[in-house]
Amino acid sequence: GELIGAGEPFPVPVFIPLMMFPILFGLSMDYDVFLMSRIREEYLRSGACPPEPQGFEEDDEVTAKARAAFERFKAWWPKSGFTVVMLETPFVDVDTGYGGSIDYVLRDRDGNLVIADLKTGSGIYSETTLQLGAYAALLALHGTAVTSGLIIHSPVNGDLSVIPVTMAQLDLGARAFVSLFFVYKSKNALKLAESA
User: In the predicted model, is pLDDT for residue 152 greater than 60?
Assistant: First the structure.
């Protein structure tokens, strides 16, 4: 409790850990959002993937690191054998109220659809599979079935790596996400009335 200014120990409400994940996850996405926004803008403008981004100024650290991450991605892309089916596409499940923008849906050399997420943070966390699984479920809900997933990790300081995600992992990630989402959405309904 001293860390946050409370002198005495106190119970942590159940929703606090559930809220910490999306907040911390969101804070780790600064470079991802910047990079994907630039890639999408140029893809829509030129039709090339990865497009040559315009407007990267090398005068600050954030854009210099994003540029370096993009260059690693750009070097990998031609060898990957993928074509873009969707790029930074928003989806929502209106029944449950969750949604997000899917970085990539790609087609591999064999014609299979693959969901991919670009990460630029220093590490990849297991929670990434929750996100990718939730997005794969959203795609399926809207009539697009993927056969696997990829995490394309291009950290701001380091080499690019591609981490395959199996369909079983996507399914498990989706089920875990929906369960956590249900707990979060149910927290108010589960509160007990205070006695007088």
Answer: yes
pLDDT digits over 51-98, tens only? 555 555 556 666 677 777 777 888 888 888 998 888 888 888 888 777
Give the length of the chain: 196
The whole model's pTM is what?
0.68
What Cα–Cα distance (Å) separates residue 62 from each residue in 23, 77, 183?
A: 20, 22, 36
- Contact partners, residue 28, CB within 8 Å, separation at least 6: 121
List beta partners, residue 158.
none
The sheet carrying 148-153 orders its strands as 83-93, 98-107, 113-119, 148-153, 161-165
Distance CA 5, CA 125 (A): 29
